[in-house]
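Hi D.,

Good news: the full-assembly prediction came through. Inputs first.
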Amino acid sequence: MERYSRLLELKDITEEKLLLLKNKRVLIIGVGGVGQHVATYLATNGVVNLTLVDFDKVELSNLNRQILLKEDDVGENKVDIVKREIMNRNSEVNITSISKKVNSNNVSSLISDFDLVIDAVDNWETKLIISEEANKKHIPFLHIGVDGYKGQCCLFKNKSLKDLVSKDIISSPKEGVIGPMVGLISSLASITAFKYLIGEEVEIDTLIYYSDPARLTKVKLS
Amino acid sequence: MLYNKSMFLKVDGTLSNEYQEGITIQDLLDMKDIEAVPWLVISVNGVFIKRDLFKSHILNDKDEIELIYVRGGG
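Then the structure:
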């Protein structure tokens, strides 16, 4: 438990709760900027059963926000590099890495026996596919989106993403992306995921939206 | 449509009394020349409003409205 000694100084964290985390299984779809941050924060804080899915190769343009990647990794399978880097930080973690593009044909086989599904993909089509499948199987679904100086997360349990955005959504404007904003939104989402997994109170079906400069808005999906 | 009285609304954190009593969310969007794009999420007093209610949801004095453009990046 030395690894988690500083974590255990928090008044709401106990060894019993950390042991509970050992039985939790988390699926993270997309290990770009958001997925790498969230996977790292969860894995290094006791969420030891992770399945990571991504089909991308590492590109040099990833490195302004995808903190686990190095220049030498360019051209490699991203999900394998992310697994390697997380294992370097916590060798007790069990990571299954799947190099695959998620679509409506394979989503059912990917989303099965998980305690939490995390959406860290970069397009609405896939986000909606994942959300619907998780909702159908009654698996909590943590949506995360970031672009420009704005971003949001929402832990859906009784609702799904199609309750929030128009089903006609195909794309939203791309304004570019800066690493610290990805880190900020990913951190908000990681805290939500962690607290949910250890059984602490979190806001369910509530959108948490950050806009620059320093404005946080919460919206309850009634 | 003619309205006589104005009311206060706080839109994205800015309070103003430039709004006519009885306006709907859609009226507010029209006033501000805002298109209800698929990634626009609107809340009134912290509660999400479904987009099929934009034309019928009447805003009240001192309502707090947030216009949120959710992001798709990951």
